[in-house]
Amino acid sequence: METGIITILADNLTRTLFERIAKERRITYKDLLEAVRSSVNPDAAEPRLDQLRAAHLIEEQEAPLRDFRTYFVTANGLSAERELRRQQSFFATR
Questions:
Q1: Pairwise CA distance, residues 88 & 46, whole Å
Q2: pLDDT tens digits along 21-46
Q3: On the CB side of 50, how many CA atoms lie within 13 Å of its CA?
Q4: What is the pLDDT of residues 58-88, one digit of tens each?
């Protein structure tokens, strides 16, 4: 995994959002925030979603209302998710 992606995913909030999007493969903004509401405030989510988009880990499909924007994981995101899971299982066995 690239250093920039590692840095982005080192942030707990960003990683939480990314993991949820990767798990669902496609999710609306409203459903994403409902799924992670205990750990993410909407104002904090926006810049982190921007970071994930800039890193090409997710893409966004626009909608007239913000709640209905749809986020989906990209091929780069799927690769990062696999690597993240591999690293997590490696450290879990230590």
A1: 26
A2: 999 999 999 999 999 987 778 889 99
A3: 6
A4: 999 999 999 999 999 999 999 999 998 888 7
What contacts 24+ positions apart, CB below 8 Å, involve 13-16?
A: 13/39, 13/40, 13/44, 13/45, 13/48, 14/48, 14/51, 14/52, 15/84, 16/40
Structural domains of the chain in order of their starting residue, each with its CATH number: 3-92 (1.10.10.10)
Tell me if the pTM is above 0.85.
yes
Give the side-chain half-sphere CA count within 13 A for 46.
4
> Which amino acid, residue 64?
P
Beta-bridge partner residues of 61: 70
Asked whether the beta carbons of 74 and 59 are under 8 A apart, the reply is yes
Bridge partner residues of 26 (DSSP): 72
